Amino acid sequence: MENQQLHELHEAHVRSFRAKMPVAPESKPPLSELQSTVVCRCRPLLPDHDNGSFQAVTTNGPNIYVHKEVSKAGLVNTTGKINSKKFQLHASTSDGDDQSIYDLFVQAVVEKSTAGGIGCVLAYGQTGAGKTHTIEAMMEIMFGTGIEIVAVSCFEIRSDEVHDLLNDGEELRVLTGAEGTDNIVGLKKVETVEGEVTEVVGRAKSLRSTASTNANDQSSRSHAFYTFFLPSGGSLTFVDLAGSENKADAISHSESENADERLKEMKEINKSLGDLKECIRLTLVNSKGGKQQHIPYRRSVLTRLLRTSLDVSPTSEVKTTFLCHVAPTRRSLPMTINSLNYAEQMVSATNAAREAAKFKGPEKWSPKMVASWVEKLDGGKYAKLAESMHMSGKIFQTMWLNDFIKRVCAAGGSEADGNYIYEKFHDLVAESKKKKKIKKVEEVTIEIVEGKKTGPKPDAAVMYGAGFSAACVENS
């Protein structure tokens, strides 16, 4: 059968599949409630680049469908029929409108930063899927809002080395501080005034390592970080990860003489991305409870510097949007599926962490959580005392009442205030323990019921309500 005829049959089956799709469901939980949001952006078909390619991806709200021709061993598909595999993230889009992407998925991160918090927008996916376009577009839109930026730093990670993009690409060291955080020693921070930010970022982009590949004429060959410091004390980082690619894509026709260098570069990029994926995988494992696995953040500079952004717990200090980029074509299917698999793992980890947090008793609260609870207690009646509550839930639980009252009085409160706050906290502890006992009974019941039906112990994701973990296959 002629390729054009098969192409038309395939397209007809994809159109039929899309026509039968239900109205896009809403994200659960709502995006506004998420500290970490995982979104798929499927770029449009490009006439010059994708001419003749089969459409292989359909987006529908949080659902992404990957289409593959039905085939049998040794036989060529002559019908154009497709199998459609579903992935489920927090949201997805194939809309080419950058402003919509910003409004839906980036603006909330910017607002977190302008209020004094930490924000991160991270783009990843295969080479040629549109990551750099998205990151640059998001920064340009942000600049156009009139946001005040007081300083900028830009660097790239190339061959597991950090290079300062605002200081002629100088190589810098990453050292671990006393608190366990990783810092780049000597990274230049350029102070800016209104109108200068675009020029500063443009200068950094011009120094970034790129190369021509079969998948992309201007492929980014490094992981780039652009951090903006705001008057509120907040910061916002845009991360453009180098694209994962295979051997065929890595070598450009025009640069065959540099093939060995390009292959070495490809291996280094894929290794760092592999380290990132392993951290994501183990984050999911740990979010399900049970014995905690060591997450190898120190395997590469990339994972060391992204460690805070990979914290998917509801109490994370960083608000993050992960933009998973995929190409819509059949030739990209293996990498599309790979990218979506890891994006789905990140969603599962986020959801499992949210569920686990619901059962995190006050005795396990951090000092920040204890202070926040006191600040909000009875509509803010005791907010003035919140700053004096810098102690963990464990310490609060074991503290003697008289000692607590002394602390409250020293902060300007009364004995009655101390008695009330102390009693309310211990009521919460008792209620939490009661809920945990009920949940434990429910989980044992689930295990017994499921065991009778299927034999094996149910997956922890089911017990924790992480309903996004499994992809399913649907036939059109």
Automatic annotation (TrEMBL):
Signal peptide positions on this chain: none
Segments forming domain Kinesin motor: 35-349
GO MF term (any one): ATP hydrolysis activity
Record GO biological process: microtubule-based movement
Binding site for ATP: G125, Q126, T127, G128, A129, G130, K131, T132
Family matches, as InterPro entries: Kinesin-like_fam (IPR027640), Kinesin_motor_CS (IPR019821), Kinesin_motor_dom (IPR001752), Kinesin_motor_dom_sf (IPR036961), P-loop_NTPase (IPR027417), SAM/pointed_sf (IPR013761)
UniProt entry keywords in alphabetical sequence: ATP-binding, Microtubule, Motor protein, Nucleotide-binding
Pfam family for this entry, one: Kinesin
GO cellular component: kinesin complex; microtubule; spindle
Cross-referenced PROSITE patterns: KINESIN_MOTOR_1 (PS00411), KINESIN_MOTOR_2 (PS50067)
Family, similarity comment: Belongs to the TRAFAC class myosin-kinesin ATPase superfamily. Kinesin family.
Protein name as annotated: Kinesin-like protein
Organism, scientific name: Triparma strigata
